């Protein structure tokens, strides 16, 4: 590492200048900022959510900030990093071997929520004065969510196709559990919270998330309690897709899901487990929140302060001010950083690095800022990366592979920043969300999906639920396997469809002709005479023929007109 920083080649940080020229330029640059502070007018091209610290030097204490900048130097000193002292990473509840997928799901999404959802759904349906509404139950709500899981696994263009009689176009058995009308009724009247006590909009005490608040808090608390994170954690934003009208809908052009509800997430990079999250509900009183990135990180990290965690975050959150606060609470950090962040060395955005792999490092106390050349300059700030640089392979224009230097902060950032992306990937695969009009139902589906994903990861790491192949080799359960078994267990023995009543008039003495289930399905006798192919399970055992329910009376009327009128 000494060779990299002490060589004459690396002293030329700016193209065509000596080190003394650079130092002189920095002094002039600082003086220019001091002279022009009161005249600077910055244009910020971020939405209200980005009103964090992007302004650069524009606060009341800029003179102090500029004085702090001068403390950054080229001398790299070792910094003592304390060992991780948190509890052993992994599930906190040891589940017995006989526990199944639904038991793990209930660790995050407790069974009592089915009853609460049923109560609120019935109250809402009654309030809509639907005289035909049949009260739902906790068992039906559980089966309804199981049906949503099935729909996530077996998607179709139109929900009606799940009830098609043509088996060619659907393969689920939802029609055996629900009638189509009943399932649509449950979707229409589904409610999960009592919002009658919520204050009006724009009034003190108004809760923008009142429609899902009880379940949101339970899922959040259970997710935190049931899994202890590893030393490395990452914080990033997740998006819940929604294109309708909503006061706190966000637009994030760089995300795969560009429009919708933004959720700040703290996830475990080792597996994508979501330990904590916070739904962003936008600015208050038309005023963008200041220092939003810092506030979010401190909110999500406060429960694990003092344990020696290493946080990885992107440039929206990263700032010297935030990393100082984390350091003061026994937490280390690394992240990409914007060159105009207050407190960074002046001129970061003017550093010219010619070749891929070149980098410049400056240090102040326990903090290092690194500018590394990949395809373009990448800026990183860290309080936990003080080791020797590594090497990475990069493909050149001529197709050859070249090994180039890579700072430790870049290597660690690439390794541990993907926790939320991993969680998003798991959540978006087989997700239960379907198109609807109510924004809060998208958020409710998000809560169910992260409950499923977290439950899956808990079961995958459970010591009593490890899978071994026939060749005695360990194998991890897939999320698809988990969701399929969970759907079966949630649907269970539930049968919501009413059985059709059979008119007792065909059964008259002394006849023994009853409509009943036959040993197996066969062609309907009457339908076949009319050149219609149907294979019912019902029929007449006395006549030893299979008959559709609607064909039973016409068939016997022909044979026994005196008995079947």
UniProtKB/TrEMBL annotation:
Pfam families: DDE_Tnp_1_7 (PF13843). Residues 102-456 form the PiggyBac transposable element-derived protein domain. InterPro entries: PGBD. Gene3D superfamilies: 4.10.830.40. This is PiggyBac transposable element-derived protein domain-containing protein. It comes from Mytilus edulis.
């Amino acid at each position: 590492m000494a060779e990299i920083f002490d060589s004459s080649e690396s002293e030329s940080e700016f193209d065509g200048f000596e080190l003394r020229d650079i130092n002189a330029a920095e002094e002039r640059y600082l003086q220019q900022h001091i002279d022009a502070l009161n005249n600077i007018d910055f244009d910020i091209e971020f939405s209200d959510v980005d009103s964090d610290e992007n302004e650069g030097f524009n606060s009341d204490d800029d003179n102090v900030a500029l004085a702090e900048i001068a403390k950054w130097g080229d001398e790299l000193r070792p910094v003592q990093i304390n060992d991780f002292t948190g509890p052993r990473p992994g599930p906190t509840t040891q589940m017995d071997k006989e526990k199944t997928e639904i038991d793990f799901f209930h660790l995050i999404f407790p069974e009592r929520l089915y009853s609460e959802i049923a109560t609120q759904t019935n109250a809402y349906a009654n309030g809509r004065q639907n005289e035909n509404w049949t009260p739902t139950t906790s068992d039906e709500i559980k089966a309804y969510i199981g049906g949503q899981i099935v729909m996530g696994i077996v998607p179709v263009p139109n929900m009606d196709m799940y009830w098609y009689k043509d088996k060619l176009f659907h393969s689920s058995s939802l029609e055996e559990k629900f009638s189509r009308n009943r399932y649509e009724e449950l979707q229409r009247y589904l409610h999960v919270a009592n919002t009658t006590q919520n204050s009006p909009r724009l009034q003190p005490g108004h809760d923008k998330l009142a429609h899902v608040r009880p379940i949101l808090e339970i899922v959040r608390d259970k997710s935190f309690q049931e899994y202890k994170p590893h030393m490395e954690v990452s914080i990033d934003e997740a998006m819940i897709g929604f294109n309708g009208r909503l006061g706190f809908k966000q637009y994030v052009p760089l995300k795969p899901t560009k429009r919708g509800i933004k959720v700040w997430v703290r996830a475990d990079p080792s597996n994508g487990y979501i330990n904590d999250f916070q739904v962003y509900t936008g600015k208050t009183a038309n005023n963008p929140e200041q220092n939003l990135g810092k506030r979010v990180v401190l909110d999500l990290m406060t429960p694990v302060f003092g344990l020696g965690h290493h946080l990885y975050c992107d440039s929206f959150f990263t700032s010297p001010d935030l990393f100082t606060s984390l350091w003061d609470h026994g937490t280390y950090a690394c992240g990409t950083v914007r060159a105009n962040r207050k407190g960074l060395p002046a001129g970061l955005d003017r550093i010219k690095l010619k070749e891929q792999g070149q980098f410049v490092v400056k240090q102040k106390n326990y903090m290092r800022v690194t500018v590394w050349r990949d395809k373009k300059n990448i800026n990183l700030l860290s309080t936990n990366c003080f080791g020797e640089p590594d090497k990475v392979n990069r493909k050149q224009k001529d197709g050859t592979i070249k090994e180039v230097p890579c700072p430790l902060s870049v290597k660690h950032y690439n390794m541990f920043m993907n926790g939320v992306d991993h969680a998003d990937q798991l959540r978006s695969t087989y997700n239960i969300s379907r198109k609807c009009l109510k924004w809060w139902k998208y958020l409710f589906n998000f809560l169910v999906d992260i409950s499923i994903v977290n439950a899956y990861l808990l079961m995958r790491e459970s010591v009593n639920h490890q899978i071994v192949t026939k060749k005695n080799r360990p194998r991890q359960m897939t999320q698809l396997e988990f969701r399929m078994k969970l759907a079966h267990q949630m649907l269970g023995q539930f049968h919501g469809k009413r059985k059709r009543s059979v008119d007792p008039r065909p059964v008259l003495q002394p006849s023994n002709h009853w409509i009943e289930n036959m040993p197996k399905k066969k062609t309907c006798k009457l339908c076949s005479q009319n050149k219609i192919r149907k294979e019912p399970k019902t029929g007449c055992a006395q006549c030893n023929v299979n008959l559709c329910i609607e064909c039973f009376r016409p068939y016997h009327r022909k044979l026994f007109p005196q008995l079947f009128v």
